[in-house]
Amino acid sequence: AYDMSKDQLLWLNDHLRILSGFYGLIRPLDSIKAYRLEMGTKMENARGKDLYDFWGSLVTHQLLRDGAPEVKSEVKGKAEGEAGAGALKAGDCIIDVASKEYSKVLDFKKLQEAGVDIYEMKFPGAAVHAKMARGAIVRYAAEQQVTDPEQLKGFRGAKGDWRFEGESTDKKTGFRVFTFQRSSSSSSSSGPAAKKRKKT
Fold this sequence. Notes:
Helices cover about 35% and strands about 20% of the residues. By secondary structure, the chain is α/β, with parallel strands linked by helices.
């Protein structure tokens, strides 16, 4: 983030919300202390046996209250003007790039009941590559000042090794799913190197 412009950082602060096991929901420019607490941690607390029980509906309520209404679903229409961050409302959308461990803390059904469209970004393959891709697509969104989920289809990854594969609708959740595939040449080039490192 150190090489991002001020405008890009401010865009991220308005549009990106980070799920945290310790803080719940934070913005990129929020001041926090260093911690190590994964969302999936089993931890007995007054509300249950883990952090999902602890946070309950609090994170979802906060997200509804503190969304970014200027990013619109193409189905409901694009944003007009320069609205600041505020409460999510019908026609807004959430682009989910979190891992399942973290997104599990959100009540997506409640978000959908509020009229919010959910877009899920999928990066099949090794977890290490998916993790890097999630960060890279957030950076891409900031660099492009994205105002419509459709713009994310142009994402190619930091090294140009990802491509948009297709769009679908998850019949169970109703999410619109954007699937990206990592090029086979990238996979094959990293495979032998990884094996070689394991032998040493």
